[in-house]
Amino acid sequence: GEEVAQTPKHLVRGEGQKAKLYCAPIKGHSYVFWYQQVLKNEFKFLISFQNENVFDETGMPKERFSAKCLPNSPCSLEIQATKLEDSAVYFCASSHPELALVNEQFFGPGTRLTVL
Amino acid sequence: AQTVTQSQPEMSVQEAETVTLSCTYDTSESDYYLFWYKQPPSRQMILVIRQEAYKQQNATENRFSVNFQKAAKSFSLKISDSQLGDAAMYFCAYLTGANSKLTFGKGITLSVRP
Asked: What does the angle CA B86 – CA B89 – CA B90 come to, to the nearest 5 degrees?
């Protein structure tokens, strides 16, 4: 597609439940990034992929968070045993390798996760 | 570690006037990229303007321009002829290395008075 697609738009989970978010990058884009925007509006980088391989996972919480990008499937971000502090908007972005000189990342509309 | 600082949490501008949003950053890299993103209430992230550090010329996109001072590590955004639709949060962001992560400032809320 021509835009980064994220599903669902909104997700509500009780504390301790699992949450799974999906991202379909723009066709032809081989890099995928996940960012977390907490309610104070601050962005935190979580993880990035080059195709199905983890490229940078320095922002990924060691526990409870996992992510995958498998061939011919949307990328996913999964949070096991959600906590109140996981409430945030999760953005996915993608970039094209040949645009490396400008490094533009195209953002999806985000998934708002609310943990009750 | 690279940091991006937006020290003004809020600004207000009269419609049709000019406003400048400040951003400073800290890095030891010589080659990097700087961006301003707009985030309206819909939360969609919209790229406003980008600047490559190796370019001395300041980037311009219609009513938006930057003042890039590499030595001072400053990257301010000037919005001319402000419009009501410019009201949003604006984030300054930094990136180094091919396909690396964006590092964002805390953002600034811009309101436009009719």
From this structure: 85
